[in-house]
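input
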Amino acid sequence: MTLTARGRAVVRLGVVLAVLGALALAGYLYLRSIGLYGTSRPGAPVTVVIPRGASVEDIGRLLEARGVVPSALGWRITTYVEDGAEEIQAGTYRLRRGLMPRDALAALLEQAPSGDVRYVDVTFPEGAWLTEFAAILARDTGIAKRDFMQVVTGGRLRSRYQPDGVDTLEGLLFPSTYQIGDDEDARAVARRLVDEFEERMGELDLSEARRLGLDPYEVVIVASMIELEARVPSERPKVARVIYNRLDQDIPLGIDATIVYALGRRGATLTESDLEMDSPYNTREVTGLPPTPIGAPGASALEAAAHPADGAWLYYVLADCEGHHSFSVDYDDFLADKAEYQSLEC
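output
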């Protein structure tokens, strides 16, 4: 059928209106995604520490990182349009996740921060044990080791990734640098570390791990081993694949870091009796995963555990003095790689 000039004009107008409608919808969805449209959906409470001298942009990044607002950009636009952001005081605030920027701004202006708080930067390294978290915290803030250990092993403070029957938060505190206020006690600090870990885990796509038969806690266990095994970040997905291949074939993982963790002696030289110890953490003797993580995995190790590389490797061994590994499928190749490394003078 041939369209008349009027008909063609109507079609063109329809196409233009459809395109404009699509652009308008895309614009609306984008503005909604950064928090300029929509309503707040208050979620779990989180602690937000605003340091002295923080700019409005700094505050926006803090709020986005803690999950309070969906976007630091949306925060910046909101605070440009609405007054008051310059009046936000330094201090510790208790806010809810899932707020629109305008509601977060109102909450910060309405809430008085915790007194005249002094802050100290405290760095918890990747791979650290709970006992090391406690020692660092005690050294830098004066919060007693015993108080912190009671909180993180007593079972009352829990993570959403913590299985029933497991009381320890080993592996469920995110290693990073935090500003700790002198008004925070052991529980408040531990809660912040758990919240940060949950935030980072929530950003991961765990579909591949689920396909491999692992639940989120088991992914953390794998990540904790990767953290201690692989010094070179680019090799972590390959180490993850070796672990998964060995689990799939019911081969003991043979990761000595799990034995070191059971002994509680960082940097220990393992003896024959150590390697034969009767422990669920002895992955030379026991198949499957250890019962808990063996340290605090960082973002790179968590990502590797969630997204292992493709490959049939079953073995890896140090290949040079910089920490790179050789990966192999065949045991004889593994022995040859091991002998080559042992010939080096590192």
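quick obs: The longest helix spans residues 5-33.
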